[in-house]
Write a structure and sequence with these properties.
The chain has helices at 3-9, 11-21, 24-27, 58-78, 83-90, 111-115, 135-155, 162-170; strands at 37-39, 94-96. The protein is mainly alpha-helical. The protein has one domain.
């Protein structure tokens, strides 16, 4: 399955199942309980939450989650005045640190990629869940997500320039991309 096929057909179901596998006090760990949160440790091999995603889709899931969190963070950072309207349309989750203490801080979405392969047990959990390589999914996702962003802002928040927004996203990507388009 390509990233495009996954994103358009499976991601919404997978993120719903993933979020519901997390106890309410962790998935709504903000003062505003309507905000969904993903703590770093919920993606690691030390918990079973990511196991609700089929192994062949985990790299696509991680990349889709990365872009979901990235878009939310870029919007909040650069378009605060319009954030309420954006949030009411998307309800995207926030990616935060672990308790105690770090749960009050938003993490950069690139940390999702280290979290999915992290284990405190020096590799013993690798037998349960092998490392996930995201590079193929990530490269497939670039054009898909660029189109999604352009479509979203063209259809829903027309005051936001989609090309400018996309460039703000590109500036935050953990890998360089070739944008000849």
């Amino acid at each position: 399955m390509t990233f495009s096929e996954y994103y358009s057909s499976r991601f919404r179901d997978d993120i719903g199942r993933f979020m519901m596998s997390i106890p309410a006090e962790s998935r709504n760990h903000d003062f505003d309980k309507s905000i969904f949160t993903v703590q770093y440790d919920k993606l690691t091999k030390d918990t079973a939450h990511l196991e609700v995603i089929s192994p062949e889709n985990r790299s696509h899931f991680a990349v889709a989650l990365f872009f979901t969190v990235l878009v939310d963070e870029v919007f909040y950072t650069h378009y605060k005045d319009e954030y309420h309207a954006f949030r009411s349309l998307t309800m995207y989750p926030k990616f935060i640190g672990n308790c105690p203490g770090a749960c009050h801080y938003h993490l950069h979405p690139r940390d999702i990629f280290s979290a999915i392969n992290y284990s405190r047990d020096n590799g013993k959990n690798n037998a349960r869940r092998p490392d996930i390589s995201i590079y193929d999914s990530f490269s497939q996702a670039i054009e898909v997500m660029r189109r999604e962003i352009f479509s979203f802002f063209t259809d829903h928040l027309t005051a936001i320039n989609p090309a400018e927004f996309w460039q703000k996203c590109v500036a935050e990507l953990p890998y360089r991309i070739n944008e000849e388009k």
